[in-house]
């Protein structure tokens, strides 16, 4: 590679890298992309959390997966705005799977939150009310 070509490539690389925005705003933007949050408030380590969104004719549209969710951690998903029917399936490590179906209206810019808890010795998925 000639010196002139090397300088040109190096200059181009510097220009491209200087145009990249490395501010911390990217994490906030990423969190705003999610509108369904499921917090693990149980002592179980969840191998995976699966959200399956259904169409009106009961065919599956989309299955979204988040994995290795420990106590206090949050599984985050993006579901289309509007009224949706979906099923949350929890797959704890070394335990049985738990599923529950929900109907929810997802509004633009709103976040719907659920939590995983143990209630009367059973793993339960409950919606967190907006005023809590």
Task: Give an overview in words.
With 132 residues, this protein is an alpha+beta fold. The protein has helices at 3-18, 25-32; strands spanning 36-40, 46-54, 60-69, 74-77, 82-92, 98-106, 112-119, 122-127. The longest helix has 16 residues, at 3-18. The radius of gyration is 21 Å and the shape is elongated.
List keywords for this structure.
single chain, 132 residues, alpha+beta, four-stranded antiparallel β-sheet, 8 strands, 18% helix
- Give the overall shape: elongated
Strand content: over 45%
Count of DSSP E strands? 8
Main β sheet profile: 4 strands, mixed
Oligomer: single chain
Secondary structure elements and pairings:
Layout: H1 3-18, H2 25-32, E1 36-40, E2 46-54, E3 60-69, E4 74-77, E5 82-92, E6 98-106, E7 112-119, E8 122-127
Structure summary:
The protein has helices at 3-18, 25-32; strands at 36-40, 46-54, 60-69, 74-77, 82-92, 98-106, 112-119, 122-127. It is an alpha+beta fold.
